[in-house]
Amino acid sequence: MFLVCQELTFNLSKNNPMKLIYLLLSFLFILGSCNKKQEKKLVKTANLDLLVDAEPEPEEELGYTVTEEGDGDAASLKEKVLFTPPDIGGTYVQTFSNGSSEPSTNKPVNKKMIIKDGTISFKTTNLAKAKTQLDSVIKRFGAYYDKEEFSNDDNQSSFNLSIRIPSVYFESFLTQIERSELELLTKSITARDVTTEFIDTETRLNNKKAYLKKYNELLVRANSIKDILQLQENIRALQEEIESSEGQLKYLLDQVGYSTLNLELIYKKDYVYKPQNQDSFFELIKRSLTGGWQSVKNLALFLIQSWPYLVLAAILFTWFKIRKKKKSQA
């Protein structure tokens, strides 16, 4: 093949040099076109690989679009953030790789979160002694008084106590005080499962924190005043909701960690007859005179208050009397 091309080239150069130049230029053009097509194919393949491996930007998930603007002749590009405000007043819906609106978790819930509360009342023959013994039991179990009230009347004396007890010792505490010398009157224990509520609140809190992080990233990249103000407002609202959710989680943890027991200690007093003091005869006379004088004052005030009606009655009475007299003379 090489010899044939060499002989052909020699003959063309000998007979017609212009044909040889035209043939060489055509060959170089065809060779350049093939190389350019091969480069475009490689670039297209690389772009497809990048599109498959690329991960979505934060602004795509939140409804933001980042565009680049610039002059055709300018070398620098200007980046602009176009803001589309999401609805942050309601619930947050985020789609995860598993196709659901809640993130999947590999952490199994091994322990239920139960809030235990109770109300119990005892009768005692020695209120001070019973209160001292209860103070000792509370100290032993690491509990404390949340509220303490004392009342005393003619029939009974009592302590109304609100006790916070570590939930792990709640049953032991009840057993300890029930075995005492106190007489049990009433008892009511309630338990409420808040496991689902806690997990739901914690999941929503994590989602809100993720949104807050993305908002802060977009705030750094925003250029217009309108976008900055809108982002700051969304961040403020999210921070308030995050603080509220964190407070709710702390409250649930406190209620689960410590059980509340409303306890009443009652001491019934013996009935003592107290005769009523009877007034003497002179005291009764004095009270009667005082009551009569009060009645006179009330009557005088009533007459003074009713003077228009008394005047009208007097006028009518005089008119009828005159009319009757004229009829008798006629």
Helix fraction by DSSP (H/I, runs of at least 4): 55-70%
Strand arrangement, largest sheet? 4-5-7-3-6
**Poorly predicted regions:** 1-6, 39-109
Shape: flat
> Overall pLDDT, averaged?
74
| Quantity of strands, as a count | 7
Main β-sheet description:
5 strands, mixed
Number of helices: 9
Order of helices and strands: HHHEEEHEEHEHHEHH
- The structural class is alpha+beta
Computed Rg: 49 Å
Beta-strand content bin? 15-25%
Distance between the termini: 172 Å
Question: How does this model look, in words?
Answer:
This protein has 330 residues and is of the alpha+beta class. Among the domains are: 2-53; 88-103 and 116-272, no CATH class. The protein has nine helices and seven strands. It has helices at residues 2-15, 17-53, 58-62, 127-140, 170-178, 195-221, 225-257, 281-305, 307-329; strands at 65-69, 78-82, 114-123, 144-152, 156-166, 183-193, 258-268. The strands form two sheets. A five-stranded mixed β-sheet has the order 4-5-7-3-6. Strands 1-2 form a two-stranded antiparallel sheet. A hairpin with a 3-residue loop joins β4 (144-152) and β5 (156-166). α1 (2-15) crosses α2 and α6 (195-221) packs antiparallel against α7 (225-257). The longest helix is centred in the first third of the chain and has 37 residues, at 17-53. It is flat, with a radius of gyration of 49 Å. Residues 1-6 and 39-109 have low confidence and may be disordered.
Q: Summarize this, please?
A:
The protein has 330 residues and is α+β, with helices and mostly antiparallel strands. The chain has helices at 2-15, 17-53, 58-62, 127-140, 170-178, 195-221, 225-257, 281-305, 307-329; strands at residues 65-69, 78-82, 114-123, 144-152, 156-166, 183-193, 258-268.
